[in-house]
Amino acid sequence: MSSRLRDVLAVTVGLYLVAVGALISLHTTGARHIGVPGLFEGAAGLFLIALGVLSMLAAWRARRFARQLSRAFGHVRSGETWRLEEGVIRTAIGDIHLDLRRATLPEGETEATLLCWVGTIQIQAPAHVGLDIEAQTFIGTVDVLGVREEGLIRDINVRTQGYEEATHRLRLRLSTVIGEVLVVRSER
Questions:
Q1: What pTM value is reported for the model?
Q2: 114 and 48, same structural domain?
Q3: Could you report the per-residue pLDDT of 128-167, keeping only the tens digit for each?
Q4: 52 and 91 share a domain?
Q5: 49, 72, 82, 137: least buried by Cβ within 10 Å?
């Protein structure tokens, strides 16, 4: 799939989700008594609108990267030894697990965006790498270097001490719709 088609597909899916969510929400806003079923319909509509908006924002954010790895279903895991380059890794349903202790990092700053609709993003980083992390989830848990938040619409920004002076700096943008984001730092 070409990168242009991938971008158009993400925006199209986002627009459809927003439209269906809006229709469901409008259906429940009549002058009649809403009740419990109406509340569930309204919540489902708002959830679909949020998913659609997040899909379009993710496509916009990922567009500036030349290297992209997309997987609809399944897990993305780092290999024994590998080279980290700027880019985007995304999956609809699955997990992303990257062990940066085995990765070769270029000198200077490297930016990576990891997007997961439903699943877990787990990063294990070595102590010598400077980290600037923006992690968020719509529903779930975010735990970045010991800073933890749970619930709806959670967002954490963490920058390690001495980031600017580090030889290897990694700027991570991590997002899930439903799931968990976990970033830990090892001593080696």
A1: 0.68
A2: no
A3: 999 999 998 888 999 999 999 998 888 899 999 999 999 9
A4: no
A5: 72
